[in-house]
Amino acid sequence: QLSGKWFLVGMASHCRYLAEHSHQLEATTVTVTVLDGQSLAISTFRKLDRMCWEIRQHYLPALAPGHFLLKGEGDCSKVDVVVGEADPSSFIILYYQKGHSISVKLYGRSSLVSDAIVDKFEQRARAVGLSEDVIYYFPTYGFCDSADEFHILDGEL
């Protein structure tokens, strides 16, 4: 149900880098492929210095349905990913937790989603202590569909 192309619509996070560079946010798409019926192969496409990049990640299934684990280098860099709410035809809200830090992302099947979906996303963000001043919305134009072989980052970030 999660397979296919998604557009990153919004993100709520206390990330300092995001706050300092929010004026430089780039249109971002994600392609999800379900592997072996459980784990997810994630390809994120976005621009960096006007070049299209692809970032490949692997979300491993966790113990509960809708829960995934994104492993990085070392024990301290694992990220828990939880599907908060989804309508596979239109939107998905994901929670990302690393240690005590949590962020919430809203993805849509198109780059524009309804106000009702935006309201759900903002309510979910507030419910985990993320106020409106740390919610960022991404551009709805200028998407990358691919990256050349020299602009692929393979592995976990």
From TrEMBL:
Keyword Signal attributed: yes
Matching Pfam families: Lipocalin (PF00061)
Signal peptide annotation: none
Keywords recorded for this protein, A-Z: Disulfide bond, Secreted, Signal
Domain (Lipocalin/cytosolic fatty-acid binding) ranges: 3-138
InterPro entries per the UniProt record, alphabetical: A1-microglobln, C8G, Calycin, Lipocln_cytosolic_FA-bd_dom
Subcellular location: Secreted
Main subcellular location: secreted
GO cellular component labels: blood microparticle; extracellular exosome; membrane attack complex
GO molecular function: complement binding
SUPFAM superfamilies from the UniProt entry: Lipocalins
GO biological process: complement activation
Protein name (record): CO8G protein
Organism, scientific name: Loxia curvirostra
